[in-house]
Design goal:
SH3 type barrels, single chain, 2 domains, Outer membrane phospholipase (ompla), Chain C, 6% helix, nine-stranded antiparallel β-sheet
Amino acid sequence: MPPRLTVVRILIITFFVYIAVSVFGQKTDTIVHINGNIYTGEIKRISYGIVTFKIDGMGTIKYEMDKVQSIKSQKYFEIKLSNGLYYYGTFDTSHFRRKVKVLLSERIELVDVNNLIEVYPIKKNFWLRVSGKFDLGIDFTKGSGIGNFNFNGNIEYRKRKSYYQFNWTNNTTTQGDSINSAKVDIVLNYERYIRNKWSAGVRTGANQNTELGLDLRLFLAASGIWDIVHNNRNRLYLEGGLSGNREWSNGDTIAVNNLEMILSTQYRLFKFTNPEINITTGLTFFPNLTTNGRLRIEYNLNSKFEIFHDFYVGLNYYYSFDSKPISATASHEDWGITTTFGYSFH
């Protein structure tokens, strides 16, 4: 056999061996069920009381942490507890009921399984650190010729002690060939864990709301975040900070600069039932520090109901208020309700 063909064959065999080790070698995590059954596979994540676990031959399954007796894995995980503490380590089983050992570099912590509120594998692959969702909603009435289009989504990239999130929302109402109103929000957010229940965040992005006379707002904001409650079913947190922005009104090339405070409360409820239910709501006040008497308010309510694995239907509501819109002829408030069909990945 020619030497070059021998080298090629060796390279091909080496490649497939590497792929086999990479694919099958990853699935070495063990979960012990409270009924004594032992499952071997790959822990994708633990969040809001649900463990997402991939098993060969069965695909990806989800079940409640109440059914977990213990966990064992030699991989490194980012682990957040209900008391706000963060760990980076591996898991091992213990002799205590529904407790797991977290193996750290210098010590071992014994943790109650119910106190594991967020567990993510620390992966080197970029794609495996990415998760997100996409929502799409379309409504049209022939008699009036009015159509509503809604496209929402977010993409998250997670690293140790921090994560990036890119969000977008597009709510457009049309009649005939013209756009009656449009509300568009594009936000890039960075959040960094500090200690205990405190985090810091920086965000930048753009807003448009033609109903409120806003053609474009570019902003940069910094804030502090404090978790009041964060467990396997709920998360409630407060946020406070400052935001600087530059605004343009409809049909006007003159820009206005603003400095605003951020006072916000956000809440998320997750319930693993049939169907799976996920509800998030938030209320944010923006008192203006440069325009006397101006106050903006943003409220949103997003609900998702899973219809089958990773696919869901949703009902979203938003309300926007501006006591002194940038355009003198604009409305002071805007609101909308949309139904969507969506998909989430990772």
